[in-house]
Amino acid sequence: MFILAVIALFIAMVLVLIRLFVGPSLxxxxxxxxxxxxxxxxxxxxxxxxxGRPDFLDIALLYALINFVGTIxxxxxxxxxxxxxxxxxxxxxxx
Amino acid sequence: xxxxxxxxxxxGLWLLMSGVYTTMVVGLGAVSVVLVVYVLQRMxxxxxxxxxxxxxxxxxxxxxxxxxxxxxKSSWSVTRIVLSPKMPIVQHLFSVPHTQKTDLGQxxxxxxxxxxxxxxxxxxxxGYFLVHALAYAPEDMDALADMDGRVSAIEHPKVA
Amino acid sequence: xxxxxxxxxxxxxxxxxxxxxVGAVGLVRFPDFWSRLHAVSVTDSxxxxxxxxxxxxxxxxxxxxxxxxLILAFLFITGPTSTHAVANAAxxxxxxxxxxxxxxxxxxxxxxxxxxxx
Lengths: 95, 160, 118
Known about the structure:
- The structure holds 3 protein chains of 3 kinds.
- By secondary structure, chain A is an all-alpha fold.
- In chain A, 82% of the residues lie in helices and 0% in strands.
- The longest helix of chain A has 25 residues, at 26-50.
- Chains in contact: A-C, B-C.
- Chain A: InterPro entries: MrpF/PhaF-like.
């Protein structure tokens, strides 16, 4: 049963990877990366159930957290060219 | 009062997540709860920015169920677009006024728009959202106005 | 009773896998960035909800279900937020959506190659 879900998620992840490599603009790639992260969270959970070890869910939860923070960090870096504090003048002119 | 509430929530989260109830593990949990509460206390003195959650509990649950039904409906319509050979896309970017008074209400409305596939909040501004639609039809405005009214209805009325 | 729950969770898991694939197919098939955003949100909402609820039904009333529901709540909040962040960053950087509906914008002339019922 879970093997079907694993195969389906695997196919979906390969398709998302195609978009990640092809994607013309930076934002296509960031979008694909974020979607890949969501698929990975589901994949880890389903694989855990398939192996009868639902402890994998801790990893899935952590992956969801890191995926969100990572997406925001990438977007922030490409907008302000800095991950830490943003200088006030660049923030004002860009916003 | 707030400190005790935070500590109880954090301790409950630890107990539910760990699932191991030996003295050492629960003791480590207690230490981390105390540490987190202490850091939060210090952060409060820096900015004093507090999260206020003022929603009607029962009405929120009702709204959530209604939202699930909306997600199901619009997921299906987007799926039909994806799987149809011609992909009938009618993209449109339009502004939707919102009537929520609190920040939380606006966040719920914007996230609900994004959560239903086919519509997506692009920009938030004072008084309106910029919304991008995949398959635009004039009825979309009415549907979004209906959702706006429902979100406003679950806000607590006492908010200034 | 157990059989009913099993069948229900199978339906949920198969539906979730279906929507996950549909989102990925849409991500590859759709012609431009703004439509791809919508394809991703199919996976983010329908796929995630159905798969996690299906797994929770399999797990029953245990701590595993609590973790699954935590993941669901977290993805429910962060999914739309990160989609909104990507869309907003793209808009700010000047990637304008093309519109198939008549608008009186200055740049409307450059965007009528998309077949649509206008």
